[in-house]
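Subject: mismatched residue count in predicted assembly?

I count 869 residues in my input, but I want to confirm that the predicted structure covers every chain. Input:
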Amino acid sequence: MANTSLVLEARGITKQFPGVLANDRVDFDLRQGEIHALLGENGAGKTTLMNILYGLYRADSGDVLVDGQAVTILTPKDSIGLGIGMVHQHFMLIPVFTVAENVMLGDETVRRGMLDRKTVAGKVQELSHKYGLDVNPQALVGQLAVGLQQRVEIVKTLYRDAHILILDEPTAVLTPQEADDLFRIMRELTKRGVSIIFITHKLKEVLAVADRITVMRNGHVVGTTTPQETNEAQLASMMVGREVILTVRKEPAQPKEKILEVSDLHVKDDRGLDVVRGVSFDVRAGEILGIAGVQGNGQTELAEALTGLRAVQGGEFVLGGVDLTGDPPRPITEAGLGNIPEDRQRHGLVLSYTVADNMVLCSYYLPPFARGLVLQQEAVDANARRLIQEYDVRTPSPYVPTSKLSGGNQQKVIVARELSRPVKLLIASQPTRGLDVGSIEYIHKQLVLMRDRGVAVLLVSAELDEILALADRIAVMYRGQIMDFVEAEDSDKESLGLLMAGIKPASQPEPAA
Amino acid sequence: MDWRRFAIIALIIGIMFGTVVLIGVSQNSALVLITSMLATTIAVATPLTLGALSGLYCERAGVVNIGIEGMMLGAAFFGWLASIYMNTVFHLAAMPSLLTGVVTAVVTGGLFALLHAVLSITFKVDQIIGGTVINILAAGITGFLNRQMFFGGGSVFGGQIPHSPGVLPRIHVPVLGDIPGLGRVFEQQPIALAALALVVITHFVLFYTRWGLRTRAVGEHPAAADTVGINVIRMRYMNVIIGGMLAGLGGAYFTLESISSFEPLMTNGRGFIALAAMIFGNWTPFGAWAAALVFGAAQALQINLQFLRQLIPPQWAFLQNSYVVGLAPYVLTMLILTGLIGRTIPPAADGKVYEK
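Triage response: the counts match. Full output below for your records.
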């Protein structure tokens, strides 16, 4: 475990961006062989600090020491030379290159003027074996699962003899299983002398894997602690700067009439494989039905089919008494669907449009936003100002491109747009993925509020905690079918976990693959 | 390897060669007709091949270059001008004059490319606009200078078209040139031969060297290249300039290898057809070369049909109309660009400005 020698030390780092003091006299240190978590909300300055350590930004003032020596890091080349490796949140991999090519890029082995792919592949294999990473050097990176791509990133740093590893929000893109694999690899690395900075905003993960925890807020370090000395609630309030309610408060549901009826639905994925295979369920007004399951068991395609984005191969669904099977999105939307899509940047927003324009994406063609063919800009603006206020969207103005907003605020734009319409059914897919604690709290409250107003809510989430906290009933999907329905109050993580793995209690036979 | 693409290319070329053989076989043997078609095809495909390779270096590094047409035109003019100056003003012999011309053309292409790089990489001007600027600039400068220097009483050469040093001579290639019957296919002039060599060299550079790996990385995902210490801006500059120099060599073909004179706008859209060839070739050197040969063959067909004019049977009279045959490469360009023949995948960051 960790001894006390410091491998990395940052003293008094200050970085000013136009309008924001991203790092204000930040002190941070990393001990040999430890996992030091850096916790904070989006925009707290974690990534800025790491980009300074990695040479992507230059600090306005402050010192960096590596192995006790003061160093100057101007470019990534400098930091790589000092043994610092970084795995970025958005992978820095070239999809059309092989693993070996990605690993050697920038530090190529050349023999007689030619790339020596064989030697590099051998070294990748060796590293992969040593740390239990299981990556094939010949594979094309674009064809690897996200979790494996992340390991390629780790191999890239190890190939350059990194002994200080910065992992920037590494679990944001991973399934729970992939995250567990990552934690195992992280422990393996620290055992062999690598020191890790683990950037995240997920409290549970921090408590599970970190040796020490430093919390940042608004560019400052709030404090450093250890998992033994703290708990989730305390970390959350350090991050947000106020009390945060981590558990959702809600009254028992009072379900009324059936709003959505789905029967024997069949859907194919992009590769033409049957991924939703005969799913039937209904959602009533005033209840939240949670769809749990490991990512990739058909939930995504199910939600896309119900929102009109994906063709239905068989079966039907009825919304508010109207059969909408196979209809395009607009009639479904007009029948009363609100949709918070899984990929907010691709399916939820037009990133280059302003906040105001995004807020009328579903209704721009209707009065009061349109009169005939002419858009009524005043009505659009008034709508935006009202929603920004009501849903607490943090934006400098209604007229900035939505791409400039943080992830949490982008999601609030979608939530504001979808919930401000008269909806009967709300489909929320992974509504809090990648968001910080404050935003998660907010979105959860809104979902419960909608339920209490008599909306039928279908919540699709890979986060079991989220499902357990919000749903009234839970359907577990496994290989395109619903394994079972359970009442939320009678279930726990373990029993749901078994269902998600395709194992039914009382050893009933599992459905054919 | 994308066999389907090459099969389609072989088929198109085969149809064009077959047409010539069918018409001409009463006068010449099929072998003579085919080798003659092949030799012409390779020769006239030279500027297209070089233009396509030019585009390849630029776009593989992530910079769209639609200014190849202008770069070739400018190089054709300045290369020719330099050779005439050397020959008539400095009284250099024909060969050194021509070689100076070639060097000047290559440098001209490089300078135009430097302009494109400054505009599109440093000043982040839209790359299509940057390329258009070069096309318009080249047409303007060459047209203006051509007029100023060669026409009218006050012009440099006093209104006289000066004696030109001729064109680059054919080179006998050992071994390949000695193959009986087929040998004459390789009896080409130096720029045509250089283009063939450059196809192989470019393939090697792009896929087997450090430079190529980094170039492709910069064109696919510049941020990833940046984080491993590669200087994205420098890589892009260098590749755009290399591309410009290749376009310059392609330009030299027009005035130093094909004919020994300059006419305004004489590149006549070849720079754009070269880009089509590059796209059809799916951004690979051999693919681009094969596609350039399709356009070359169409042009060779047009030339050969003019020689065989009397032999064209009456029911194929439309082939006598050189405009109809001349249209073929442009129709092909359009068909190819509408994606009729296979899907092509450009480098992911092609045309995108890199900002940290």
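Chain A has 17 helices and 24 strands. Marking this ticket as 'not a bug'.
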